[in-house]
Amino acid sequence: SLGQDLHSKRFYQWPLRIKDIQQQSIDANNNQITIQGWVRNVRHQKSISFLEINDGSSIAHLQVVAENPESLKGVKHGACVSVTGNLVQSKGKNAELKELNLESIKVIGDCPEDFPLQPKLHSMEFLREIAHFRTRSNTLGAVLRVRNRSTQLIHNYFNRHGFINVHTPIITAGDCEGGGEQFHVSSTVPPPPTSTTATKNTTPTTNTPPPFFGEKAYLTVSGQLEAEIFASSHGRVYTFGPTFRAEKSNTSRHLSEFWMIEPEIAFINLTDNLDIAEDFVKYLVKNILIECKDDIDFFNKRVDKNLLARLEKTVASPFIRLPYKDAIQLLLSAKEKFENPVSMGIDLAREHEKYITNHYDGVPVFITHWPKNIKPFYMRESEEDSNTVENMDLLVPEIGELIGGSIREERFDHLHKRMSEMGMNIDGYDWYNDLRKYGSAPHGGFGLGFERFLQYVTGLQNIRDVIPIPRYPGFCKF
Ligand code: 4AD
Q1: Dihedral angle, C-alpha 192, 195, 198, 203, nearest 10 °
Q2: In a domain? residue 52
Q3: Model confidence over 400-430: pLDDT tens digits?
Q4: Is 154 inside any structural domain?
Q5: Which residues line ligand 1 (CB under 6 A)?
Q6: Domain region containing 153
Q7: How far, in Å, CA of 101 to CA of 87, rounded?
Q8: For 186-229, what is each residue's pLDDT tens digit?
Q9: Ligand 1, closest atom to CA 403?
Q10: Which of 33, 76, 406, 419 has the fewest CB atoms lying closer than 10 Å?
Protein backbone atom coordinates (compact mmCIF):
# COMPACT_ATOMS: atom_id res chain seq x y z
CA SER A 1 0.00 0.00 0.00
CA LEU A 2 0.99 3.66 -0.30
CA GLY A 3 1.52 3.89 3.46
CA GLN A 4 4.03 1.05 3.40
CA ASP A 5 5.88 2.62 0.46
CA LEU A 6 6.24 5.86 2.35
CA HIS A 7 7.96 4.11 5.20
CA SER A 8 9.98 1.67 3.14
CA LYS A 9 13.59 2.05 2.11
CA ARG A 10 12.38 2.35 -1.47
CA PHE A 11 11.04 5.85 -0.80
CA TYR A 12 12.87 8.46 -2.86
CA GLN A 13 15.59 10.33 -1.01
CA TRP A 14 15.73 13.93 -2.20
CA PRO A 15 19.37 14.86 -2.83
CA LEU A 16 20.87 17.98 -1.34
CA ARG A 17 20.54 21.14 -3.44
CA ILE A 18 22.81 24.15 -3.64
CA LYS A 19 20.36 26.49 -1.89
CA ASP A 20 20.63 24.36 1.28
CA ILE A 21 24.38 23.95 1.28
CA GLN A 22 25.33 27.10 3.15
CA GLN A 23 23.06 26.04 6.04
CA GLN A 24 24.64 22.56 6.20
CA SER A 25 26.77 22.03 9.27
CA ILE A 26 30.17 20.57 8.59
CA ASP A 27 30.60 17.19 10.16
CA ALA A 28 34.30 16.44 10.54
CA ASN A 29 33.69 12.69 10.17
CA ASN A 30 31.23 12.73 7.31
CA ASN A 31 31.15 15.80 5.13
CA GLN A 32 30.98 14.12 1.75
CA ILE A 33 28.15 15.28 -0.49
CA THR A 34 27.13 14.91 -4.13
CA ILE A 35 25.61 17.74 -6.17
CA GLN A 36 24.16 17.63 -9.66
CA GLY A 37 23.89 20.71 -11.81
CA TRP A 38 25.31 22.71 -14.71
CA VAL A 39 28.78 24.18 -14.97
CA ARG A 40 28.63 27.97 -14.99
CA ASN A 41 32.36 28.59 -15.04
CA VAL A 42 35.68 26.71 -15.13
CA ARG A 43 38.91 28.44 -14.07
CA HIS A 44 42.33 26.89 -14.18
CA GLN A 45 45.25 28.27 -12.23
CA LYS A 46 48.72 26.79 -12.05
CA SER A 47 48.14 24.14 -9.45
CA ILE A 48 44.47 24.49 -8.65
CA SER A 49 41.21 24.65 -10.63
CA PHE A 50 37.74 25.94 -9.79
CA LEU A 51 34.29 25.04 -11.00
CA GLU A 52 31.12 27.03 -10.40
CA ILE A 53 28.01 24.85 -10.37
CA ASN A 54 24.39 25.99 -10.37
CA ASP A 55 21.36 23.75 -10.05
CA GLY A 56 18.58 26.35 -10.33
CA SER A 57 17.64 26.09 -6.66
CA SER A 58 19.09 29.54 -5.91
CA ILE A 59 21.05 32.39 -7.41
CA ALA A 60 24.12 31.08 -5.56
CA HIS A 61 26.69 28.91 -7.29
CA LEU A 62 28.62 26.25 -5.48
CA GLN A 63 32.36 26.58 -5.81
CA VAL A 64 34.17 23.30 -6.35
CA VAL A 65 37.93 23.29 -5.77
CA ALA A 66 40.13 20.75 -7.54
CA GLU A 67 43.63 20.53 -6.16
CA ASN A 68 44.54 18.29 -9.04
CA PRO A 69 43.60 20.28 -12.17
CA GLU A 70 43.88 17.07 -14.20
CA SER A 71 40.64 15.88 -12.61
CA LEU A 72 38.74 18.68 -14.37
CA LYS A 73 40.27 18.11 -17.77
CA GLY A 74 37.61 18.13 -20.45
CA VAL A 75 34.92 19.55 -18.11
CA LYS A 76 33.38 22.40 -20.06
CA HIS A 77 31.25 25.38 -19.33
CA GLY A 78 27.58 24.48 -19.78
CA ALA A 79 28.02 20.74 -19.16
CA CYS A 80 25.67 18.83 -16.88
CA VAL A 81 27.71 17.23 -14.10
CA SER A 82 27.53 15.25 -10.90
CA VAL A 83 30.23 16.28 -8.39
CA THR A 84 31.20 14.50 -5.22
CA GLY A 85 33.45 16.10 -2.65
CA ASN A 86 33.98 17.21 0.91
CA LEU A 87 32.12 20.25 2.14
CA VAL A 88 34.56 22.69 3.77
CA GLN A 89 34.68 26.31 4.82
CA SER A 90 36.16 28.36 1.99
CA LYS A 91 39.82 29.28 2.26
CA GLY A 92 39.36 32.05 -0.30
CA LYS A 93 38.21 35.64 0.16
CA ASN A 94 34.64 34.53 0.91
CA ALA A 95 35.58 32.70 4.08
CA GLU A 96 31.97 32.73 5.32
CA LEU A 97 30.93 30.46 2.42
CA LYS A 98 31.19 26.73 2.15
CA GLU A 99 32.72 25.08 -0.87
CA LEU A 100 33.41 21.59 -2.12
CA ASN A 101 36.83 19.94 -2.28
CA LEU A 102 36.54 17.75 -5.33
CA GLU A 103 36.81 14.00 -5.00
CA SER A 104 35.23 12.90 -8.25
CA ILE A 105 33.25 14.34 -11.12
CA LYS A 106 31.04 12.70 -13.71
CA VAL A 107 30.04 14.52 -16.87
CA ILE A 108 26.40 13.55 -17.40
CA GLY A 109 25.87 15.67 -20.52
CA ASP A 110 28.85 17.16 -22.30
CA CYS A 111 28.55 20.66 -23.76
CA PRO A 112 30.31 21.52 -27.03
CA GLU A 113 32.22 24.78 -27.32
CA ASP A 114 29.57 26.37 -29.53
CA PHE A 115 27.08 26.56 -26.58
CA PRO A 116 25.46 29.97 -27.19
CA LEU A 117 25.21 30.87 -23.51
CA GLN A 118 28.77 31.87 -22.68
CA PRO A 119 29.99 32.96 -19.21
CA LYS A 120 29.73 36.67 -19.98
CA LEU A 121 27.08 39.36 -19.94
CA HIS A 122 24.58 38.73 -22.74
CA SER A 123 21.97 41.26 -23.82
CA MET A 124 18.34 40.46 -22.99
CA GLU A 125 17.59 40.55 -26.74
CA PHE A 126 20.16 37.83 -27.36
CA LEU A 127 18.84 35.74 -24.47
CA ARG A 128 15.35 35.95 -26.00
CA GLU A 129 16.73 34.39 -29.17
CA ILE A 130 17.92 31.41 -27.15
CA ALA A 131 14.79 31.12 -25.03
CA HIS A 132 15.39 27.38 -24.55
CA PHE A 133 18.66 28.08 -22.71
CA ARG A 134 18.02 31.43 -21.08
CA THR A 135 16.76 30.11 -17.72
CA ARG A 136 20.31 28.82 -17.22
CA SER A 137 21.43 32.44 -16.94
CA ASN A 138 21.41 34.24 -13.58
CA THR A 139 18.71 36.76 -14.54
CA LEU A 140 16.21 34.41 -16.11
CA GLY A 141 16.95 31.77 -13.48
CA ALA A 142 16.00 34.28 -10.80
CA VAL A 143 12.85 35.33 -12.71
CA LEU A 144 11.60 31.75 -12.76
CA ARG A 145 12.02 31.40 -9.00
CA VAL A 146 10.33 34.75 -8.23
CA ARG A 147 7.52 33.86 -10.62
CA ASN A 148 7.03 30.55 -8.87
CA ARG A 149 7.05 32.06 -5.39
CA SER A 150 4.66 34.81 -6.46
CA THR A 151 2.26 32.17 -7.76
CA GLN A 152 2.25 30.44 -4.37
CA LEU A 153 1.76 33.74 -2.54
CA ILE A 154 -1.20 34.67 -4.75
CA HIS A 155 -2.93 31.39 -3.94
CA ASN A 156 -2.04 31.81 -0.24
CA TYR A 157 -3.53 35.28 -0.11
CA PHE A 158 -6.89 34.24 -1.52
CA ASN A 159 -6.94 31.00 0.40
CA ARG A 160 -6.41 32.75 3.74
CA HIS A 161 -9.32 35.11 2.91
CA GLY A 162 -11.75 32.32 2.02
CA PHE A 163 -11.75 32.63 -1.78
CA ILE A 164 -12.52 29.73 -4.12
CA ASN A 165 -10.18 29.30 -7.07
CA VAL A 166 -12.16 28.69 -10.25
CA HIS A 167 -10.92 27.56 -13.63
CA THR A 168 -12.73 29.57 -16.27
CA PRO A 169 -12.67 28.51 -19.93
CA ILE A 170 -9.91 29.40 -22.36
CA ILE A 171 -12.24 29.01 -25.34
CA THR A 172 -15.07 31.51 -25.06
CA ALA A 173 -17.89 32.98 -27.12
CA GLY A 174 -17.91 36.57 -25.80
CA ASP A 175 -15.59 39.57 -25.75
CA CYS A 176 -15.30 40.65 -22.13
CA GLU A 177 -13.39 43.86 -22.72
CA GLY A 178 -15.25 44.78 -25.90
CA GLY A 179 -12.00 45.77 -27.57
CA GLY A 180 -12.29 43.24 -30.40
CA GLU A 181 -8.77 42.06 -29.64
CA GLN A 182 -9.58 38.38 -29.66
CA PHE A 183 -7.85 35.49 -31.35
CA HIS A 184 -10.27 33.31 -33.29
CA VAL A 185 -10.21 29.63 -32.44
CA SER A 186 -9.74 27.64 -35.57
CA SER A 187 -10.11 23.88 -35.85
CA THR A 188 -10.04 21.41 -38.69
CA VAL A 189 -12.90 21.97 -41.06
CA PRO A 190 -14.96 18.76 -41.49
CA PRO A 191 -14.15 17.05 -44.81
CA PRO A 192 -16.74 17.37 -47.60
CA PRO A 193 -19.04 14.34 -48.00
CA THR A 194 -17.47 11.54 -50.06
CA SER A 195 -19.17 10.48 -53.31
CA THR A 196 -20.53 7.26 -51.72
CA THR A 197 -22.23 9.11 -48.86
CA ALA A 198 -23.44 12.02 -50.97
CA THR A 199 -26.98 11.67 -52.24
CA LYS A 200 -28.49 13.26 -55.28
CA ASN A 201 -30.14 15.95 -53.19
CA THR A 202 -27.02 17.01 -51.31
CA THR A 203 -26.08 20.54 -52.12
CA PRO A 204 -22.37 21.09 -51.61
CA THR A 205 -21.69 23.73 -48.95
CA THR A 206 -19.62 26.63 -50.11
CA ASN A 207 -19.44 28.40 -46.75
CA THR A 208 -16.77 27.16 -44.40
CA PRO A 209 -18.54 26.37 -41.12
CA PRO A 210 -17.47 28.52 -38.17
CA PRO A 211 -14.61 26.79 -36.47
CA PHE A 212 -15.76 25.57 -33.05
CA PHE A 213 -18.02 22.73 -34.22
CA GLY A 214 -20.30 25.18 -35.94
CA GLU A 215 -20.01 28.11 -33.53
CA LYS A 216 -17.82 31.20 -33.41
CA ALA A 217 -15.23 30.95 -30.68
CA TYR A 218 -12.27 32.92 -29.38
CA LEU A 219 -9.43 32.65 -26.93
CA THR A 220 -10.42 34.41 -23.72
CA VAL A 221 -9.25 37.98 -23.06
CA SER A 222 -10.34 37.77 -19.40
CA GLY A 223 -12.03 35.27 -17.10
CA GLN A 224 -14.06 37.99 -15.43
CA LEU A 225 -17.52 37.45 -16.90
CA GLU A 226 -17.40 33.75 -16.09
CA ALA A 227 -15.93 34.48 -12.64
CA GLU A 228 -19.06 36.57 -11.99
CA ILE A 229 -21.11 33.35 -12.30
CA PHE A 230 -19.23 31.81 -9.41
CA ALA A 231 -19.16 35.00 -7.30
CA SER A 232 -22.96 34.74 -7.57
CA SER A 233 -22.87 31.38 -5.79
CA HIS A 234 -19.71 31.38 -3.66
CA GLY A 235 -19.27 35.08 -2.84
CA ARG A 236 -15.47 35.22 -3.15
CA VAL A 237 -13.74 33.61 -6.09
CA TYR A 238 -10.65 34.18 -8.21
CA THR A 239 -9.18 32.98 -11.45
CA PHE A 240 -5.50 32.76 -12.29
CA GLY A 241 -5.03 31.71 -15.85
CA PRO A 242 -3.69 32.53 -19.28
CA THR A 243 -5.45 35.25 -21.26
CA PHE A 244 -4.89 36.30 -24.85
CA ARG A 245 -4.94 39.63 -26.67
CA ALA A 246 -4.63 39.95 -30.42
CA GLU A 247 -3.55 43.59 -30.25
CA LYS A 248 -0.50 44.20 -32.42
CA SER A 249 1.32 45.95 -29.61
CA ASN A 250 5.04 45.58 -29.97
CA THR A 251 5.76 47.24 -26.64
CA SER A 252 7.72 46.32 -23.54
CA ARG A 253 4.44 45.97 -21.58
CA HIS A 254 2.27 43.83 -23.87
CA LEU A 255 2.21 40.13 -24.62
CA SER A 256 -0.16 38.19 -26.85
CA GLU A 257 -0.44 35.56 -24.11
CA PHE A 258 -0.23 36.68 -20.49
CA TRP A 259 -1.47 35.47 -17.13
CA MET A 260 -4.05 37.34 -15.15
CA ILE A 261 -5.26 37.11 -11.55
CA GLU A 262 -8.90 38.10 -11.30
CA PRO A 263 -10.72 38.11 -7.96
CA GLU A 264 -14.49 38.58 -8.13
CA ILE A 265 -16.23 39.44 -4.89
CA ALA A 266 -19.89 39.80 -3.88
CA PHE A 267 -21.18 42.51 -1.54
CA ILE A 268 -18.39 45.06 -2.04
CA ASN A 269 -18.30 48.68 -3.15
CA LEU A 270 -15.52 50.59 -4.93
CA THR A 271 -13.75 51.58 -1.70
CA ASP A 272 -13.67 47.92 -0.64
CA ASN A 273 -12.32 46.98 -4.06
CA LEU A 274 -9.50 49.55 -3.74
CA ASP A 275 -8.71 48.36 -0.20
CA ILE A 276 -8.51 44.74 -1.32
CA ALA A 277 -6.34 45.51 -4.36
CA GLU A 278 -3.96 47.60 -2.23
CA ASP A 279 -3.74 44.97 0.49
CA PHE A 280 -3.15 42.24 -2.12
CA VAL A 281 -0.28 44.09 -3.84
CA LYS A 282 1.32 44.97 -0.50
CA TYR A 283 1.04 41.40 0.75
CA LEU A 284 2.72 40.07 -2.39
CA VAL A 285 5.54 42.62 -2.46
CA LYS A 286 6.20 42.34 1.28
CA ASN A 287 6.47 38.57 1.19
CA ILE A 288 8.52 38.48 -2.00
CA LEU A 289 11.02 40.84 -0.35
CA ILE A 290 11.35 38.32 2.46
CA GLU A 291 11.06 35.01 0.66
CA CYS A 292 12.98 35.87 -2.51
CA LYS A 293 15.56 38.04 -0.77
CA ASP A 294 18.62 36.72 -2.62
CA ASP A 295 17.01 37.03 -6.03
CA ILE A 296 15.63 40.52 -5.35
CA ASP A 297 19.06 41.63 -4.05
CA PHE A 298 20.50 40.31 -7.31
CA PHE A 299 17.98 42.31 -9.38
CA ASN A 300 18.65 45.38 -7.28
CA LYS A 301 22.39 45.09 -7.89
CA ARG A 302 22.37 44.03 -11.52
CA VAL A 303 19.15 45.29 -13.09
CA ASP A 304 17.82 48.35 -11.26
CA LYS A 305 19.57 50.06 -8.34
CA ASN A 306 16.31 51.68 -7.19
CA LEU A 307 14.31 48.48 -7.09
CA LEU A 308 14.52 47.74 -3.36
CA ALA A 309 13.71 51.31 -2.36
CA ARG A 310 10.73 51.33 -4.73
CA LEU A 311 9.37 48.06 -3.41
CA GLU A 312 9.86 49.08 0.21
CA LYS A 313 7.97 52.28 -0.51
CA THR A 314 5.15 50.25 -2.06
CA VAL A 315 4.76 48.28 1.15
CA ALA A 316 5.08 51.26 3.48
CA SER A 317 3.03 54.01 1.81
CA PRO A 318 -0.74 54.29 1.50
CA PHE A 319 -1.59 54.26 -2.22
CA ILE A 320 -2.90 57.50 -3.70
CA ARG A 321 -6.58 57.49 -4.74
CA LEU A 322 -7.23 60.05 -7.46
CA PRO A 323 -10.47 60.55 -9.41
CA TYR A 324 -9.90 60.62 -13.17
CA LYS A 325 -11.02 64.25 -13.46
CA ASP A 326 -8.36 65.31 -10.94
CA ALA A 327 -5.75 63.27 -12.79
CA ILE A 328 -6.59 65.17 -15.98
CA GLN A 329 -6.40 68.49 -14.11
CA LEU A 330 -2.99 67.49 -12.82
CA LEU A 331 -1.80 66.73 -16.36
CA LEU A 332 -3.29 69.95 -17.71
CA SER A 333 -1.45 71.97 -15.11
CA ALA A 334 1.87 70.23 -15.82
CA LYS A 335 4.72 72.26 -17.24
CA GLU A 336 5.75 69.23 -19.28
CA LYS A 337 4.82 69.10 -22.99
CA PHE A 338 3.12 65.80 -23.73
CA GLU A 339 3.22 64.14 -27.15
CA ASN A 340 -0.37 62.97 -26.65
CA PRO A 341 -2.62 65.99 -25.99
CA VAL A 342 -4.49 66.02 -22.69
CA SER A 343 -8.22 66.73 -22.38
CA MET A 344 -11.18 65.40 -20.40
CA GLY A 345 -12.27 62.08 -21.84
CA ILE A 346 -8.91 60.77 -23.13
CA ASP A 347 -7.43 57.42 -22.24
CA LEU A 348 -4.09 57.87 -20.50
CA ALA A 349 -0.95 57.30 -22.56
CA ARG A 350 2.24 55.86 -21.09
CA GLU A 351 3.78 59.35 -20.77
CA HIS A 352 0.76 60.53 -18.74
CA GLU A 353 0.96 57.53 -16.42
CA LYS A 354 4.66 58.23 -15.91
CA TYR A 355 4.03 61.85 -15.07
CA ILE A 356 1.39 60.91 -12.49
CA THR A 357 3.50 58.30 -10.67
CA ASN A 358 6.51 60.66 -10.67
CA HIS A 359 4.34 63.43 -9.31
CA TYR A 360 3.50 61.22 -6.32
CA ASP A 361 7.13 60.33 -5.83
CA GLY A 362 6.82 56.71 -6.85
CA VAL A 363 3.85 55.82 -4.64
CA PRO A 364 1.31 53.69 -6.57
CA VAL A 365 -1.76 55.65 -7.69
CA PHE A 366 -5.32 54.44 -8.21
CA ILE A 367 -7.18 56.46 -10.84
CA THR A 368 -10.89 56.05 -10.18
CA HIS A 369 -14.19 57.07 -11.83
CA TRP A 370 -13.22 57.03 -15.51
CA PRO A 371 -15.53 58.29 -18.27
CA LYS A 372 -18.14 55.67 -19.04
CA ASN A 373 -17.74 55.90 -22.81
CA ILE A 374 -14.12 54.69 -22.86
CA LYS A 375 -14.77 51.70 -20.59
CA PRO A 376 -16.43 48.28 -21.07
CA PHE A 377 -20.18 47.68 -20.83
CA TYR A 378 -20.19 45.83 -17.51
CA MET A 379 -18.92 48.68 -15.30
CA ARG A 380 -21.43 50.21 -12.89
CA GLU A 381 -22.38 53.84 -13.38
CA SER A 382 -21.23 56.13 -10.56
CA GLU A 383 -24.03 57.27 -8.29
CA GLU A 384 -22.73 60.88 -8.27
CA ASP A 385 -22.09 61.24 -12.00
CA SER A 386 -23.69 58.91 -14.53
CA ASN A 387 -21.05 59.84 -17.12
CA THR A 388 -18.42 58.05 -15.07
CA VAL A 389 -18.10 54.50 -13.80
CA GLU A 390 -17.19 52.93 -10.47
CA ASN A 391 -13.82 51.70 -11.58
CA MET A 392 -10.10 51.96 -10.99
CA ASP A 393 -6.76 51.46 -12.66
CA LEU A 394 -3.68 51.08 -10.50
CA LEU A 395 -0.59 52.85 -11.84
CA VAL A 396 2.82 51.90 -10.50
CA PRO A 397 6.19 53.52 -11.25
CA GLU A 398 8.19 52.15 -14.20
CA ILE A 399 5.33 49.94 -15.39
CA GLY A 400 2.20 52.07 -15.60
CA GLU A 401 -1.09 50.19 -15.42
CA LEU A 402 -0.79 47.11 -13.26
CA ILE A 403 -4.44 46.53 -12.34
CA GLY A 404 -7.79 47.29 -13.94
CA GLY A 405 -11.00 46.71 -12.03
CA SER A 406 -14.51 47.89 -11.24
CA ILE A 407 -17.81 47.40 -9.54
CA ARG A 408 -20.06 45.56 -12.01
CA GLU A 409 -23.50 46.74 -13.07
CA GLU A 410 -25.72 44.37 -11.10
CA ARG A 411 -29.09 45.97 -12.04
CA PHE A 412 -30.77 44.17 -14.91
CA ASP A 413 -32.44 47.23 -16.46
CA HIS A 414 -29.32 49.40 -16.28
CA LEU A 415 -27.17 46.69 -17.86
CA HIS A 416 -29.71 46.02 -20.58
CA LYS A 417 -29.88 49.73 -21.39
CA ARG A 418 -26.11 50.06 -21.51
CA MET A 419 -25.70 47.05 -23.79
CA SER A 420 -28.35 48.43 -26.16
CA GLU A 421 -26.68 51.84 -26.19
CA MET A 422 -23.41 50.18 -27.11
CA GLY A 423 -25.07 48.19 -29.91
CA MET A 424 -24.17 44.84 -28.38
CA ASN A 425 -25.72 41.51 -29.30
CA ILE A 426 -27.74 41.06 -26.11
CA ASP A 427 -28.87 37.51 -26.98
CA GLY A 428 -25.29 36.28 -26.77
CA TYR A 429 -25.19 37.46 -23.14
CA ASP A 430 -28.44 35.85 -21.94
CA TRP A 431 -26.64 33.95 -19.24
CA TYR A 432 -24.87 37.13 -18.05
CA ASN A 433 -28.15 39.02 -17.84
CA ASP A 434 -29.74 36.09 -16.01
CA LEU A 435 -27.26 36.64 -13.17
CA ARG A 436 -28.90 40.05 -12.75
CA LYS A 437 -32.43 38.66 -13.07
CA TYR A 438 -32.18 35.88 -10.52
CA GLY A 439 -30.77 36.75 -7.12
CA SER A 440 -28.47 39.55 -8.23
CA ALA A 441 -25.82 40.73 -5.78
CA PRO A 442 -23.66 43.85 -5.86
CA HIS A 443 -20.16 42.72 -6.76
CA GLY A 444 -16.86 43.74 -8.26
CA GLY A 445 -13.27 42.78 -8.69
CA PHE A 446 -10.13 43.44 -10.64
CA GLY A 447 -7.50 41.93 -12.89
CA LEU A 448 -3.79 42.08 -12.11
CA GLY A 449 -1.49 41.35 -15.04
CA PHE A 450 0.92 38.78 -13.65
CA GLU A 451 3.81 39.61 -15.97
CA ARG A 452 3.51 43.34 -15.31
CA PHE A 453 3.62 42.51 -11.63
CA LEU A 454 6.78 40.45 -12.20
CA GLN A 455 8.34 43.33 -14.11
CA TYR A 456 7.55 45.49 -11.11
CA VAL A 457 9.24 43.23 -8.58
CA THR A 458 12.26 42.33 -10.72
CA GLY A 459 12.90 45.73 -12.31
CA LEU A 460 13.12 44.11 -15.75
CA GLN A 461 12.33 46.52 -18.55
CA ASN A 462 10.75 44.13 -21.00
CA ILE A 463 7.70 41.99 -20.27
CA ARG A 464 9.07 39.30 -22.62
CA ASP A 465 11.72 38.53 -20.03
CA VAL A 466 9.43 37.65 -17.12
CA ILE A 467 7.49 34.82 -18.76
CA PRO A 468 9.16 31.45 -19.38
CA ILE A 469 8.33 31.32 -23.09
CA PRO A 470 6.88 34.57 -24.44
CA ARG A 471 4.29 34.99 -27.17
CA TYR A 472 4.23 38.26 -29.08
CA PRO A 473 3.72 39.29 -32.70
CA GLY A 474 6.40 37.48 -34.67
CA PHE A 475 7.44 35.07 -31.92
CA CYS A 476 5.85 31.64 -31.65
CA LYS A 477 8.97 29.56 -32.01
CA PHE A 478 8.17 26.50 -29.88
O1 4AD B 1 -7.50 46.33 -17.78
P2 4AD B 1 -7.76 44.94 -18.31
O3 4AD B 1 -8.01 44.80 -19.76
O4 4AD B 1 -8.95 44.40 -17.43
C5 4AD B 1 -9.65 43.25 -17.63
O6 4AD B 1 -9.38 42.39 -18.44
C7 4AD B 1 -10.75 43.10 -16.62
N8 4AD B 1 -11.71 42.14 -17.14
C9 4AD B 1 -10.16 42.66 -15.29
C10 4AD B 1 -11.19 42.46 -14.21
O11 4AD B 1 -11.79 43.41 -13.76
N12 4AD B 1 -11.37 41.22 -13.77
O13 4AD B 1 -6.53 44.02 -17.92
C14 4AD B 1 -6.13 43.86 -16.59
C15 4AD B 1 -4.63 43.89 -16.47
C16 4AD B 1 -3.99 45.20 -16.89
O17 4AD B 1 -4.06 46.15 -15.85
C18 4AD B 1 -2.57 44.77 -17.19
O19 4AD B 1 -1.82 44.63 -16.01
C20 4AD B 1 -2.76 43.40 -17.79
O21 4AD B 1 -4.04 42.93 -17.36
N22 4AD B 1 -2.72 43.39 -19.26
C23 4AD B 1 -1.69 42.91 -19.98
N24 4AD B 1 -0.54 42.35 -19.62
C25 4AD B 1 0.29 41.95 -20.60
N26 4AD B 1 0.02 42.04 -21.93
C27 4AD B 1 -1.14 42.60 -22.35
N28 4AD B 1 -1.40 42.66 -23.65
C29 4AD B 1 -2.05 43.06 -21.36
N30 4AD B 1 -3.28 43.63 -21.41
C31 4AD B 1 -3.66 43.82 -20.13
Answers
A1: 60
A2: yes
A3: 999 999 999 999 999 999 999 999 988 889 9
A4: yes
A5: 176-177, 222, 224, 245, 254-255, 258, 260, 262, 401-406, 445-447, 449, 451-452, 463
A6: 139-189+209-465
A7: 6
A8: 766 655 666 554 444 444 444 565 678 888 899 999 999 999 99
A9: 17
A10: 76
